[in-house]
Structures are given as structure tokens and as C-alpha cells.
Amino acid sequence: MAQNSAKLVFWGVRGSTPTLERDMWRYGGNTPCVEVTAPGGAHFILDCGTGLRMLGNHLTALNNRWSRWQGDTGIEAHILVTHYHWDHIQGIPFFHPFFEAQNRFHFYSFQSKHLGRNSLRQVFDAQLASPYFPVDVGAMAASRFFREVGGGEKWETEGTQITTAWLNHPQGCLGYRLDTSAGSVVYATDNEPGAPDCDAAIRQLAQGADVLIYDAQYSPEQLASTRKGWGHSCWLEGVKIARECKAKSLVLFHHDPDSTSRTVDGFLSAARQEFPGTWAAMEGMSITLNDQGAEYALPESRMGQRRRVRLAATVYGCNENGGTFEEKTILRDLGLQGAYLFLSNKPRLQSEVRVVVDAAEGENGNGAVSLRATVTHCERSHEKSQNGVGVFFIEDAAPEPPRD
Ligand SMILES: [Zn+2]
Ligand SMILES: [Zn+2]
Q: Which ligand is nearest to the CA of 169?
């Protein structure tokens, strides 16, 4: 990583409860956990949802690699917890680095009215208590330090400025802003608009942010009717805040457990019409912040078996500047989930394209196959003066279950 750059990785993006259904896979099913690595190397973890388990395995693997060169100095991280609802703490018992003595963790959250002093420590004790978990909290050998903070606080940790704000959510919730020398990130999830104090606080927190991660659990219609009072928000509110605060980009986060990937696609495209710098948080998505701005990368989409092919195809899509294009190409790499192809156009990441593949030679009939896909990768190709483009096929609506 270049000297002055910060990196964010999304390990869990789903709200409320983990999801495993196939038509939710594309955005991911783990509950909130975002990793931020500051320019000096300081590690921050935002929330401890079920995505935390994968982050733990990743940090352990990195540490093992480092240890070979410089001895095991352990893992150190600052863990900022927004609140104590299950979806934000459920990964704690499954984060292996907590069970290794050489590691050190600094926790920050607020004193809950219901738990009193040392709220976060009590959450640990309760989660790893009999009969809910097989080992007790004594097995957590890592050093743990707890600090209780409130809204409107500011402090510095290893060169990163941290600011907090109260959000409007049942039993309370904190939003965090991290200002690093490479850019700023605001993490404001689990917030319902409409409480004047919190509405003002979140706007102050999000002022000029490079990345604003915001609760977009519901549709604007749900938020105005059946889900009013549930403590969450929608893409439209995110767009309003991003615009008012001149945030550079907006990341829709905390997807509803009942939202399919197609539902999230819909929220994203509606939001992009109003605020073009919008993204939808996806498990494995990363953002690199540096002097040039923010660079987004999506997870590898060409998993599973792939075949080298040569199929004539036409791609219809949207350019980075918002214009549409139609371009003929040859599909060279095809899997069940996605494909790789070259285009002179530069399609926008997370935008939808249609890939129309001509019928294979020698087949009778004129069966062109039309595939809907979303763009997951786009890079300048070295050999050709073209862009290498990765696309992930979009699932059609789930088939109706069979009836008796
Ligand atoms: Zn939540
Ligand atoms: Zn919550």
C-alpha cells in the first residue's frame, strides 16, 4: 500500500440478521463489520457483526506471514462499536484473535442505560456465558481495554482523529467519523431520520466526508409507513445527507435481511439518479483513499469453473460518465456466474449491462442468449488499448415454489 493511503474493507453489510438465501449472495449475508487501515498502519474495526469472523481469519493469516520475518508481535486493533444489538456484536465469540495472548484490542462504545458501567465488557461476559456458549470469557486470552464514549466526543488514535455523534435508534447508537491523512470516512448506520438533534448531529459528522456509509435498510415507502419507528433509514435520506454535507461518495449499508440482491440493485440505481457517487455496500468490497480520491474495488466474481470460449457478443451498458453504449466484442472467458471480456467503453462498476451472446456456430436456429449482468471489474488492459471487464450474471427472479 502506498505511504499515504487508507483502505476500507467491507466484511459484513447485512442488517438485523445474517442471510444465506441464494438470491442475497451477491451483496452478502454477514452482519456489519468494516475494517479501516489508516495510512500509518493503525487498524480500526467498525462493529462486530458476523463478518468479524472472516476478518479474524484474515488478520491471523497476515500476522502468521509477518511473524516469519519479525517474530510474532501480535495483532492490535481499535474496535469501535456502534451499539449492542445482536447484529453488531454477534461475531465476537468467533473472532479467533481474541483467544491469543499476544494480541491487544482497544474497545470503544457507550454506557448503555440498561447495562450501566462497563457495558461492552458485560456484553462479552453475557455472550460467552453458560448456557449460550461452550467456553467462558476466561478463554479470551488477548489483552482487552475498554473505553466508554458518548456522542459529540473527539480524540486521536495513532494519528487518526475520531469523532462521534448520537444517532436515532432504539437504546441508542453512535456514529463514528475517522479523519486520516489520506481522507475521511463516516460510519453512520442504524439511524432513523426525524429526530432534530440526531439529524443535525449526523450532518455535522458527515460534512465533506470522502466516504459516507449510511443505513439504507428500507425503501422510502416502507420508511414512511410499515417500518416507521423501527430505527432505520433509506437511500433517499442518505442521498439528502450526502448532498447537503457535500460528501464525495455515499455507500448504502445495512441491507434488510428480506432484501434480495435485485432489491438492493433497485435502491442503488434509484440513488445514483439523484447522487451519482452512490455505491451499495457488498461483502468483500474495498475502498482505497489517497490524494487522487477514492478507488472502489469489488470482490472477485469469476469464481467456480470457467471456460475459455470465443463467442461473439454485444454488450449494452452505461459508461462512467453516465452515457449509454452498445459495443460488439468477443466473449473469451465464461463461467456459470460471470464472464470476462474486452471493451473500448469503460462501463461503470456496479452498473447493469446486458450481454447478448450470438448462437454458437454450427447450431441450428438463431438462439441468441441475453444475459443480465452487473459490472464488478474494469481495468485498462496492457496488451490491447481496451478495458478488461468482469461481469457477474444477475439472477432472475426466484422460481415459484412447486405447488401440490
Ligand atoms: Zn443493525
Ligand atoms: Zn440496531
A: 2
